[in-house]
Design goal:
With 98 residues, the chain is α+β, with helices and mostly antiparallel strands. The chain has 3 helices and 4 strands; from the N terminus they run E-E-H-E-H-H-E.
């Protein structure tokens, strides 16, 4: 399943459902899809997400075989969503996902 995040005056962000669900829970949301966050609640959601990402483990590629794809950690995957939330804050816009 794919989840698309959207807000006014910013490009939509699409990510895999399992990653989106993890990020939504870090934001303090239940993780239900579809859903939304009101503009007044976006700053707290971003703060929750950033705090949760600061403690998220980062993958180590030191032991990876050259034939394997490198692991991408949750903080890296969250970067587009963080930028979308920052834009929503500056534009005082709601954030929706479906």
């Amino acid at each position: 399943m794919l989840v698309t995040f959207s807000t006014a005056r910013y490009s939509d962000i699409t990510m895999f459902g399992d990653i989106a669900g993890q990020l939504l829970k870090l934001m303090g949301h239940s993780g239900t899809i579809p859903g939304a966050i009101l503009a007044a609640d976006v700053p707290q959601a971003l703060a929750n997400l950033q705090q949760g990402l600061s403690t998220a483990p980062t993958p180590s590629n030191n032991d990876a075989d050259e034939s394997q794809e490198p692991s991408i950690g949750l903080p890296s995957r969250a970067l587009p969503l963080v930028k979308l939330l920052e834009s929503a804050i500056s534009n005082q816009s709601d954030v929706m996902w479906k």
